[in-house]
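## retry 2 of 3
previous attempt timed out at serialization; input unchanged, resubmitting
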Amino acid sequence: MQDIDVRDSHKRLLIQQIYRAQSMQRIVEAQSCECPTRYPSWEAAEGVFVGHFAASEYWDIVEATSEYRRQANELRREAMPICKAAGNW
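## retry succeeded, writing output
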């Protein structure tokens, strides 16, 4: 992510939303909100970006960002009670 030029900040936003969606998915799947589950390394999100979106055009990135944001928000509804119960929200 550090190698992305500031003029390509839309790509950084996509990586952040991929990370957020993956985090919420992990919490729901594990039924756990421990820090390693909620805050894993950025490697997996960066891997998805490089594998699927690194060469994409601006509007494709914007669309993907919106989709990952939607996924994260849907998963958040399930993840929030798990994290609240663990005192990690």
